[in-house]
Amino acid sequence: MTIRIDEEYLVSTLSRLVQINSTNPSLSPDGAGEAEIAAYVAGLLRDLGLEVTAWEVAPGRWNVVGRLAGKGRGHGHGRSLLWNAHLDTVGVVGMAEPFSGAVRDGRLYGRGSQDMKGSLAAMLAATQALVQSGLELDGDLLVTAVADEEHSSIGADDLVAKGFHADAAIVTEPTDLAVCLAHRGFIWYDVETFGRAAHGSRYREGIDANMHMGRFLAELGKLEAELRARPSHPLVDVPSLHAATLHGGTELSVYAAHCRLQIERRTVPGEIVESATAELQGIIDRLSTADPTFRATVTPTFSRPPFAVNETADIVQAVSQAAQTRLGRNPDVIGQLFWTDAAIFAAAGMETMLIGPTGHGLHSAEEWVDVDSVVDLAVILADTAVNYLSR
């Protein structure tokens, strides 16, 4: 069954979403946060008759959930489905029209238009279409909009912690309408080397932590090359790492007593923090064995797991069929190199996959989303809900 999407509602809603400043304050000092956009989304969901829950995850940081109850009336009868988009955006420095929401030549412009207010508008338009169709779904549909995906994902974490759960989840990050079944994870590390401070003339007393970090970096480069030579994952390629920041020493004529390196390690499905950490600790152990004055530590400070779902999963099959019907072709099957909230929903036991619209300029000075692709996404979401929740 194909549900009719009100394109005028979709475009006007998307334009208004883009006009609301929801830059992430953890990324931009003057970031507005999600309070205003969350209130707008909650109002639209209430207007459609959904049961709405909105709460402040942290000061100025908001989540919104709308429940379209199926025949079980919210009591867990029938399968359930969760749609997800994030409310926050990255900053707008250098953008000529960050909040315009203007449409030109089939493209809607502004920060977040593709990442991912276009997806949020598609979810809202699909919800409206389901409500207006009069069709009663067997199971519940949860329409979720969360805070802070662009920084630490406190919104998705809190959503899951508060017990919002479904049998399956569709995360609508932009994918050019491809079916995304995997993405990489990441681990952030602090590596510290320790020396002995001394005047620059006292070479017998000083131990140079910066020089020791140089030895570590040389070995790190070898590990990075080895990671790239490993067998690639069919959807997300190979693991990788880079040396992100480096700070050491206090002044020119003093041996550095301390040096700190921050590393980002990108992981592929099957890799875990413990094994990646052991690779870095192995470098330290070898260098310490070769030189008793070499002292260093490695500490994982934050991590997010990689994500993968089997192409035979029911939600993948449902979305793929809806996409094939709408697009007139089999959708591409892809993985993404970046991380998304999909990993959080998958870790909570939901069968999860991603699909989202086409556009250009993620995190750049000009961002736009293709309006037709947003309409396509809304149709795919609505048809998937009908088919998945009627089984």
Please give a structural write-up.
- Helices cover 34% and strands 25% of the residues.
- It is an alpha+beta fold.
- The protein has 2 domains: 260 residues, Zn peptidases (Aminopeptidase, 3-Layer(aba) Sandwich); 120 residues, Alpha-Beta Plaits (2-Layer Sandwich), CATH 3.30.70.360.
- It has a 6-stranded mixed sheet, with helices on both faces. Strands 4-5-17-16 form a 4-stranded antiparallel sheet.
- Helix 1 runs antiparallel to helix 3.
- It starts with 6 loop residues before the first helix and ends with a helix.
Please specify the SSE layout and strand pairing:
Elements (H helix, E strand, L loop, with lengths): L6 H13 L15 H13 L3 E8 L2 E8 L12 E6 L16 E2 L2 E3 L3 H21 L7 E6 L7 H8 L6 E4 L7 E5 L1 E10 L14 H20 L11 E9 L9 E10 L5 H18 L4 E10 L2 E2 L5 H14 L5 E4 L5 H6 L3 E4 L4 E2 L7 E3 H18 L3
Helix pairs in contact: 1-3, 3-9, 5-6, 7-9
Short description:
The protein is of the alpha+beta class and 391 residues long. It has helices spanning 7-19, 35-47, 113-133, 154-161, 209-228, 273-290, 314-327, 342-347, 371-388, and strands at residues 51-58, 61-68, 81-86, 103-104, 107-109, 141-146, 168-171, 179-183, 185-194, 240-248, 258-267, 295-304, 307-308, 333-336, 351-354, 359-360, 368-370.
Notable characteristics:
391 residues, alpha+beta, Aminopeptidase, Alpha-Beta Plaits, 2 domains, six-stranded mixed beta sheet, four-stranded antiparallel beta sheet, 17 strands, 34% helix
Instruction: Give the number of DSSP strands.
Output: 17
Instruction: Tell me the series of helices and strands, N- to C-terminal.
Output: HHEEEEEHEHEEEHEEHEEHEHEEEH
**What is the residue-averaged pLDDT?**
96
Report the β-strand fraction as a percent range.
15-25%
Q: SS-based structural class?
A: alpha+beta
pLDDT < 50 stretches: none
- Residue share in helices? 25-40%
